[in-house]
Amino acid sequence: MNQQQDQLEALQEIRNIMDRSSRFISLSGLSGVFAGLSALLGAAVVKWYFSQHNINYYNDLASNFRREDVLFVLAVAVGVMVLAFGTATYFTARNARKKNQRTWDNQSKRLLVNLAIPLAAGGVFCAILLYHNILYLVAPAMLIFYGLALLNGSKYTLGDIRYLGIIEIILGLVASVFVGYGLMLWTVGFGMLHIVYGALVYFKYER
After folding, report:
1. Contact 177/61 with Cβ under 8 angstroms?
2. Cα-based torsion angle of the residue sequence 45, 51, 52, 53 in order, rounded to the nearest 10 degrees
3. What pLDDT does 22 receive?
């Protein structure tokens, strides 16, 4: 019985070693929480701006936006992305140090490449939508391509991220149909879902 138990433990250890060698498992749940908080902050700033300029996203469907309105929203989106990326880098590096693992290795490179391809495609597609003044589909497109990026990168990090990606894609598709709720669903997808996901990952792997 003890021999069988030892064999099972040895197999589990081998599996863990293989998992660590093929996946970047230092991704911190706190990075997801702070990314979500950054998105909520950005959404609040955009909502304030809309109220100050009498813009109703639901009724206007972004068709009556002025150039300066679009530039302001884009500036906020870039600020949210920079803040989210910065906090993700900090907490992930801190988590890697706790686990005595390297932050930048072959696994993290593969993860970033597989995330970057759908994200880059999504960024170009959103730019095309802006060029054609189809602004109301930008929020749904961001959700869909972000979800595809998470789905694509889930093979190289925590498997839990796969489910977040699927939900983001579903939200994006729903927002593509009910375009008046695009901003609200963007807030749910990038804000609330990130906070929930990050908290679950933190308590599951880091506590």
Report:
1. no
2. 110
3. 46
DSSP string, 36-105: HHHHHHHHHHHHHHHHHTT--HHHHTTTT--HHHHHHHHHHHHHHHHHHHHHHHHHHHHHHHHTT--SSS
pTM of structure: 0.81
For residue 102, give both structure tokens: 């390297």
Q: How confident is the model at residue 21 (pLDDT cuts 50, 70, 90)?
A: very low
- Residue 143 near residue 169, CB atoms below 8 Å: yes
Q: What is the pLDDT of residues 68-80, one digit of tens each?
A: 888 898 899 999 9
Domain ranges (residues) in the chain? 34-206
Written as six digits, the tokens of 62 are 């972004």
Contact 159, 204 (CB under 8 A): no
The DSSP result for 18-37, as a single string, is HHHHHSB----HHHHHHHHH
The set of residues, in sequence order, having a beta carbon less than 8 Å from that of 20 and lying 6+ positions away, is 101
**Taking the C-alpha atoms of 119, 120, 124 and 126 in order, what is their torsion angle to the nearest 10 degrees?**
20
Q: What is the average pLDDT value for the chain, to the nearest integer? A: 82
Q: What is the rounded distance in angstroms from the CA atom of residue 8 to the CA atom of residue 164? A: 32
First to last CA, the chain: 32
The string of pLDDT tens digits covering residues 153-183 is 888 877 788 899 999 999 999 999 998 898 8
pLDDT at 148 over 90: yes
